[in-house]
Design a protein that fits this description.
Elements lengths: L3 H5 L18 E6 L5 E7 L23 H12 L4 H12 L9 H15 L4 H15 L4 E6 L5 E7 L1 H10 L2 E3 L12 E2 L2 E4 L5 E9 L4 H14 L7 E4 L3 H10 L4 E4 L1 H11 L7 H13 L3 H14 L6 H8 L21 H11 L8 H27 L11 H9 L2 H15 L2 E7 L4 E6 L7 H4 L20 H6 L5 H23 L3 H35 L8 E3 L34 H4 L26
Parallel strand pairs: 3-13, 5-9, 9-10
Antiparallel strand pairs: 1-2, 3-4, 4-8, 6-8, 7-8, 11-12
Helix pairs in contact: 7-8, 10-11
């Protein structure tokens, strides 16, 4: 008879180990004599096992060592984004094989694991706050806020640097953020705030983690964001279809136009198509209503025609979507600036850029490092775009047009192509004057939407200044570049370091084949190392007092849920920060994908071409 208690006891699988001890008596014994030298007193030569072959000697523990030089190399490669095995393979190639590295692959994996744990030895949350505090000491305009729960655990955290503030001052008229991703071990919600720069590329405004998707959390997040951004409100904001977020937006920024992500709407719609999923004409008609309508009358006509044709008038989902038409229909969103965005995929691309290295096992500290590298990569792209625009002018298809020449001089290359396209459509517009008086002119537009070709009517060869939006020009960020000269000093040392490394590497190559030159190099290294250490010790004594006085009080950036007003703490004591609990949210560890996205991608046939007559082309929304 089997005892029930014995059945419920979980038995651990025994560890599989190999026996390496053979009780071999071979040894060498030595002692220190009166002269202070080692003296061999016993030597047993006979082994009871086969000796290691010469090609395996490098695997012995006595032959393996993680030197300081290798530690620096591994840390540099890990910080650049290489995986653990990539760093090992590189070092093996550089050394001429694994046998020449000086440590095994297991040693390498163990060291990288210890390195990761040492980074968060004080605790993941505490380490992140320490990093943010250090950033604030180096960048006076760096801003971060941390909110705790009653147990002293982080529940919300927000940060932005000085460059993000400058970007928001210029491009903050449109704000995009999406909270459907989880990219950390605590399942906290990643909420990046993203905008669009003058080259039609992403720019980062801020980033945050929140513990839940309740209205109060979104209210805290938005209030903190606008406090960090000098209380500047955007013209429009794009989000996913989260009701708690919509409530928070209505409470914090009621005058900002809230837009929904068409991408999410489109994916949800496809799952509702049912038997119509294979109907190409229906999908084309729905896509026309979703993206291609220019006027409200056109949208209403096409929407009603689609519902009646496919008998969807009483469908509850289409009714709900229609009630929200003001938040997603382009034809109903022409009265405010939205930079031509139709979805929050700007923010989703941010999550994708970060998520390719972040996972559900990523710590907050590791995420912050990945986030900084992603932001720096975007800024490098922006600098390249600025350089390209400063050294070139776009080629125009109508070189005799003064207005196009002027547009090529002021707009960035990407925006000029949009302007040139719209300019071409305006040239094809048919305009008839029906009457005039001293105060106004009455026109009738044919075959399209109204665009008065004023360059023909009044010989205008330049775009009036009031119609040129500075945020799309080549000069949008000129003043910001002049102000932001406080580059990280550590970044300034990298070119010098790389140059000196190449010089010393070449010198070592020249010295390696001669015994005297090798001895000279070793002696020079010891002398140089001693001098450098003495100089650094002297400099450290002078700067220690100044460095201690510049460290800000972490408590000034913390908030607690225990206070009903959630006011900033004024305590001078640095709080002990605990790691957050694993959040239970409405989402999943990563954005939930529908069957459409999970299915294998196939080449889709082209949709039926729209009417080729002028006026069927939707105007570029970036210009509105």
């Amino acid at each position: 008879m089997v005892d029930e208690e014995d059945v419920n006891v979980k038995t651990r699988k025994p560890r599989q180990v190999s026996i390496t001890r053979s009780n071999c008596k071979a040894c060498i014994r030595a002692k220190v004599n009166k002269e202070g030298q080692f003296e061999v007193v016993a030597h047993v030569i006979q082994h009871n096992h086969e000796l290691t072959k010469p090609q395996w000697h490098y695997l012995h523990r006595s032959k393996r060592k993680m030197t300081e030089e290798k530690v620096v190399t591994i840390k540099t490669m890990k910080s650049s984004g290489l995986t653990t095995m990539d760093t090992y393979n590189y070092m093996a190639t550089e050394a001429g094989g694994e046998q020449n590295i000086g440590h095994s692959v297991v040693d390498h994996l163990n060291f990288c694991s210890r390195l990761r744990m040492e980074q968060i030895e004080a605790g993941d949350a505490q380490t992140l706050v320490n990093i943010l505090s250090q950033e604030q000491s180096e960048d006076p305009n760096f801003f971060f806020r941390v909110k705790f729960d009653k147990e002293g655990r982080i529940c919300n955290i927000f940060w932005r640097d000085s460059m993000m503030l400058e970007d928001y001052r210029i491009y903050g008229d449109v704000l995009v953020f999406d909270t459907t991703y989880r990219t950390n071990r605590y399942n906290l919600i990643c909420a990046p705030f993203v905008g669009i720069n003058n080259h039609w590329h992403n720019c980062m405004f801020a980033c945050a983690f929140i513990g839940d998707e309740m209205t109060d959390s979104f209210v805290w997040l938005l209030q903190t964001f606008f406090k960090a951004m000098e209380d500047r409100k955007p013209t429009s904001i794009f989000t996913d279809q989260d009701q708690a977020m919509a409530n928070a937006i209505l409470e914090v920024i009621p005058n900002t136009r809230h837009r929904l992500c068409i991408w999410h709407l489109e994916q949800n719609a496809i799952t509702r198509f049912g038997a119509l999923k294979k109907d190409k004409e229906f999908k084309f008609a729905f896509n026309q209503c979703l993206k291609m309508c220019v006027t409200e009358q056109e949208f209403e006509a096409k929407w009603q025609a689609m519902l009646q044709k496919y008998e969807l008038t009483e469908h509850s989902w289409y009714k709900r979507v229609y009630e929200l038409k003001d938040k997603w229909c382009p034809a109903l969103c022409r009265d405010f600036f939205s930079a031509g965005i139709l979805s929050s995929q700007r923010s989703e691309s941010t999550n994708h850029a970060i998520g390719f290295r972040a996972s559900k096992a990523t710590t907050l500290t590791e995420f912050y490092t990945i986030f900084k590298k992603t932001t720096n990569r975007w800024r490098s792209t922006e600098k390249y775009d600025e350089f390209t625009c400063s050294k070139s002018i776009a080629f125009t298809s109508l070189p005799l047009s003064g207005m196009l020449k002027h547009a090529a001089q002021v707009f960035t290359l990407s925006l000029f192509r949009n302007f040139e396209e719209e300019f071409g459509y305006s040239m094809a517009t048919t305009v008839q004057m029906l009457g005039s008086n001293e105060e106004c002119l009455l026109y009738q537009h044919l075959d399209g939407y109204v665009i008065i070709a004023s360059e023909h009517l009044h010989s205008v060869t330049r775009i009036p200044d009031k119609y040129v939006s500075k945020r799309w020009t080549k000069f949008a960020k000129t003043e910001a570049w002049d102000r932001l000269k406080n580059q990280d000093p550590k970044q300034q040392y990298i070119p010098w370091r790389q140059t000196m490394m190449r010089k010393y590497y070449n010198l070592i190559l020249k010295s390696q084949e001669n015994e005297e030159t090798r001895a000279f190099m070793e002696e020079s290294f010891r002398n140089s190392l001693k001098m450098v250490e003495d100089l650094l010790a002297s400099a450290a004594q002078k700067e220690s007092a100044e460095a201690a006085s510049n460290i800000p009080d972490v408590a000034d950036n913390t908030q607690s849920n225990t206070d009903a007003s959630s006011a900033s703490s004024t305590s001078t004591c640095v709080p002990i920060i605990l790691d957050p609990k694993r959040a239970v949210t409405k989402g999943r560890s990563k954005r939930a994908k529908g069957g459409l996205e999970k299915s294998k991608r196939k080449r889709k046939p082209a949709l039926p071409p729209p009417n080729s007559e002028f006026g069927s082309k939707t105007p570029n929304l970036r210009l509105f």
